[in-house]
Specification:
Layout lengths: L3 E12 L7 E12 L3 E5 L6 H8 L7 E6 L2 E2 L4 H4 L3 E4 L11 H11 L4 H14 L15 H13 L5 E5 L7 H16 L3 E6 L2 H7 L2 E6 L2 E6 L1 H6 L5 E5 L6 H4 L5 E4 L2 E6 L4 H10 L5 E4 L2 H9 L8
Parallel strand pairs: 3-8, 3-9, 6-7, 7-8
Antiparallel strand pairs: 1-2, 1-4, 4-5, 9-10, 11-13, 11-14, 12-13
């Protein structure tokens, strides 16, 4: 297969409806996903992540631009793309009248897997998603997190060359989320490529080889989590709730980021005592921690990832 699992060039999507203004969901997205990579599209709700994923997985036609999967154009030849991909849609639901075991096995058989292969992969995927104990319960009786894990199990069982996962861990507890992360790492070790969307900053940071920050249908930044954090301007974040009116008092210590009324100072360890002294004089509380993708996102987008677009 070609070295590029996904190659997108100036992909645009405009939604038009009679009597309503046009909505530009994508405004010229260009990106590359190498074979065997785990790539994250990071952005707020409504930023365009799901639209891009739907186009790349042949579920939506772009208004303009080009996008290929393993060298095959997704618009011109979607039937050649689909055998090489599998998709976990955002907030997808398993078939309620099936059990998790039936759901995964039936999906694999529908994709053409032999019975014994489908059985073996079903059991492995259920084990990876910690679903073995509920594998024979109807999906309608499962919790929301268990249903989401069933959807993920269904897709990872395919071991398809390219997996699309749209907010795959939404609704899961922290333990289950980490189980999904380890399963995705296993799949890339076996040769699969993964493109996922998320608004969980920790998920993007620990799971992705590279991150694309998307805002209002545009790629604003891309790189490894470490390179994006370095661009924030320091290694330490000092957060000052209620510190917004005192921006000038902290401007000499490093880049300033705002989140509501909270002021974040991005700096380096030697400046911490000085910052704390100023905070004490102004009667401000302060917390200190390492710079994370949250600061990189705030610096790039100008607002919190938790705000809707």
């Amino acid at each position: 297969m070609p070295a590029d699992a996904i190659l997108a060039q100036d992909v645009r999507k405009t939604y038009r409806s009679r009597g309503a203004p046009e909505v530009n969901a994508l405004s010229g997205v260009s990106l590359r996903v190498g074979a065997g990579e785990r790539i994250c599209l990071l952005g707020r709700n409504g930023a365009g992540k799901t639209t891009f994923l739907r186009i790349a997985s042949t579920l939506l036609v772009p208004t303009s631009g080009q996008l290929s999967v393993f060298g095959v154009d997704v618009v011109a030849s979607p039937e050649r793309v689909r055998p090489n991909i599998a998709v976990v849609p955002q907030e997808g639901k398993p078939f309620f009248h099936l059990t998790p075991r039936e759901q995964v096995y039936t999906y694999l058989r529908a994709r053409g897997f032999a019975r014994e292969t489908a059985k073996a992969r079903t059991e492995e995927a259920l084990g990876l998603m910690d679903l073995s104990e509920v594998a024979n319960r109807l999906n309608v009786t499962l919790s929301g997190g268990q249903r989401q894990r069933t959807m993920v199990a269904t897709v990872i069982a395919t071991q398809a060359p390219l997996l699309f996962l749209d907010e795959p861990t939404i609704g899961m507890d922290p333990f289950a989320r980490r189980g999904v992360w380890e399963s995705l790492r296993l799949l890339t070790r076996r040769g699969s490529t993964i493109l996922l969307t998320t608004h969980y900053l920790d998920e993007a940071e620990v799971l992705s080889d590279r991150v694309y920050i998307i805002e209002r249908g545009l790629v604003l930044a891309q790189g490894t989590a470490e390179s994006l954090k370095r661009e924030s301007g320091g290694t330490i974040r000092v957060s000052l709730p209620g510190g917004l009116p005192w921006k000038e008092s902290f401007s000499s210590f490093g880049p300033l980021l705002t989140e509501g009324e909270t002021l974040h100072v991005v700096t380096d360890p030697p400046r911490i005592p000085e910052i704390m002294a100023v905070a004490l004089r102004l009667q401000l509380s302060a917390t200190v921690g390492p710079v994370t993708l949250e600061e990189a996102f705030l610096r790039t987008v100008g607002r919190s990832i938790h705000e809707d677009s």
